[in-house]
Amino acid sequence: MASYNKIPAVLPQLPYPYNALEPAISAQIMELHHSKHHATYVANFNKAHEDIQAAAQAQDIKKQIALQAAIKFNGGGHINHSLFWQNLAPASSGGGQFPSSGPLAEQVKQDFGGLDGLKKAVNAAALGIQGSGWAWLGYNPTTKKLEAVATANQDPLLGYVPLVGIDMWEHAFYLDYKNVKQSYLDAIWGVINWKEAEARLSKA
């Protein structure tokens, strides 16, 4: 079981400094995003989990139902962000460098015609989100194909193996790109950790 899927939730350490993804993502955004936003999801999930355990012990059905939204939102936020940090890598460490051959390159060519087609599909999913959410490159184990998928709010990507996730909440980009989401998307492809994506695909 992945560490981010274990209870209690724990804020993971980043595998790079806050400024490592500049200029694509500023150190200011990375620090706020990780140490404030993600940390809040962790704290709120753990509190909701404690409360739902107490409600179960008290056999309080209504309280357990009322806590489901907090479990889903904060638990999803923790899972999504844990995957997101691993999805990114500094350019100096291979970020943005898509493999020219191998299982991932072959699957992308088969399902999207190449990297440009993949980016176009994921960008379309991202820009189609109304409000906040996530855009994903997911592997569908049923069809054995890659798909561009969007999820609302902090809903995790269920039914797929998440290879790449892009946070489309404003806290992920607004300080750097204001409301120009396309500029954020153009930049983030330059720091995507394709080695991590390929490793996830190999385990699918």
UniProtKB/TrEMBL annotation:
Tagged with keyword S-adenosyl-L-methionine: no
EC number: 1.15.1.1
Residues in Manganese/iron superoxide dismutase N-terminal domain copies: 11-89
Binding-site residues, Mn(2+): H33, H81, D167, H171
Stretches assigned to the Manganese/iron superoxide dismutase C-terminal domain: 101-200
Reactions catalysed according to its record: 2 superoxide + 2 H(+) = H2O2 + O2
InterPro entries recorded: Fe/Mn_Superoxide_Dismutase, Mn/Fe_SOD, Mn/Fe_SOD_BS, Mn/Fe_SOD_C, Mn/Fe_SOD_N, Mn/Fe_SOD_N_sf, SOD_C_sf
GO cellular component: mitochondrion
Gene Ontology molecular function, alphabetical: manganese ion binding; superoxide dismutase activity
Record-linked PROSITE patterns: SOD_MN
Alphabetized UniProt keyword annotations: Antioxidant, Metal-binding, Oxidoreductase
Family: Belongs to the iron/manganese superoxide dismutase family.
Biological role stated in the UniProt entry: Destroys radicals which are normally produced within the cells and which are toxic to biological systems.
Name of protein: Superoxide dismutase
Gene name tied to this protein: SPOSA6832_03668
